[in-house]
Amino acid sequence: MSIDHITTAIETITHSNSVETYQTAFKVLFKLLDNMLSNRLDTKFRKINKSNKLIESKLLKCKGILSLLSTLGYEEVDYATLEYAGQDFEPAGYAREALGSICGVDNLELQADGQTSHHDLHDKGSGSITDRSSNSSPQKHRKSKHSKDIDIFSDEQYDGETKWGWYEGFSRYQFPNGVVYEGEFHKGEFHGNGTLIYPNGGKFKARWERGRMIDGEYEYYDGLMYNSENWDYCQSHDRRFYTEIKEGLRPAGATLIVNDPAGPPRIPSGTYDAGVGQGYYDPRRDQFFTYDGEEIPAPEDMSTEWILDNCRYQPAEIQDLTDDETVIP
Q1: Chosen CATH of 3-140 out of 2.40.50.140, 3.40.190.10, 1.20.58.2190, 1.10.3720.10
Q2: More confident residue, 84 or 260
Q3: Where along the chain do its domains lie?
Q4: What is the pTM assigned to this prediction?
Q5: Rounded to whole angstroms, how far apart are CA atoms 29 and 246?
Q6: SS3 (DSSP) at 25
Q7: Which of 102, 104, 109 is nearest to 130 (CA)?
Q8: Which of 271, 277, 292, 165 is nearest to 221 (CA)?
C-alpha cells in the first residue's frame, strides 16, 4: 500500500459522507491508531471489535471506512474482529497524522457511564466521545508532548518531544551500544542538525535529511577535528600529540606517551592497550577486556596481529628482590 492510496481513501470518505459523520468516524479511528502506535508490543491494540456499540455507531456507519481500514492493513479475523496485519506501522502513523489534521485533535476523551479508558474502544461495549478540541483550530491542537521512553528489550532510550507518536523536534536518543544522538527529529528520523556522541567521547556533528547524513565532521574527544583530505596530525615531521600542540611540550622526564595528560590507562602485565573505547588485549588468553577487566568481543576494525605490532605493551613487572633472598646466577 502507498501513501497515495491512503490519501485517496480518506478523500473518498470526505466526499461520501456529511462533515459530522466523517469527522466523528475520523476521531474514533484516530484514537484507535494512536492507541496501537503507543502500545506497539501489545497485540490487543491491533484489534478492532466491530460489535462494540461505539465502533458500530460512530465508525462503521461511515461510508468507505472499511475500505480505508483495508488500505491501512486491517484484515477480518472473524465476523466481529478486524486486526492490523501490516508489516510496519508507517501507514498507520501517516493516517493518524492525516486524520488528526482534518479533525484538529491530539487527544480524545472517552466516556461511558462516566468512566471509560482508551482500552474500551477495543474491548468493551457502549460509550460516547467528547472532543476536547472541538472549538479550536488544528494548529492549536498539534501540540507536542515530552516523552521519556525506554525499550526494555533493546535498552534504547528516547528523551524528547513527540508529535502524533513520532519523535519530533530537538531530542536525545541512545542506541543499545551506548552511542547517543542529540539533535533534531522529524517524523521519527534524524532531520536537521544533530550530533552522534560516542562512548569514547568522540562526536560526529552533521546535517541530516530524512535520516540520511548530508554533510558532517568528526571531532575527537580532545577537540581535534578530523580532516580526511589533508590529515597532518602525528606525522613523521611532527610527532606531537594534540595536547602538546595546545599546551606545549613537557620537560624531559614528563613527556607524554599518550595524548591524555593523565597518562595511559593501567593494564595488566603482559597485555596490549588496544586504545580508547577498545580496552586491552591479553595474548595469553586471546581475549579482549575493558579497562575494568570485563570480557568483551574483539573489535571489528583491528586484527590481533596489528595490535601486537602497533599497540602499547605493558611488560611484566620486575621482581624486587630483598637482600635476604638468594639470587641464582
Answers
A1: 1.20.58.2190
A2: 84
A3: 3-140, 146-219, 242-314
A4: 0.42
A5: 61
A6: helix
A7: 109
A8: 277
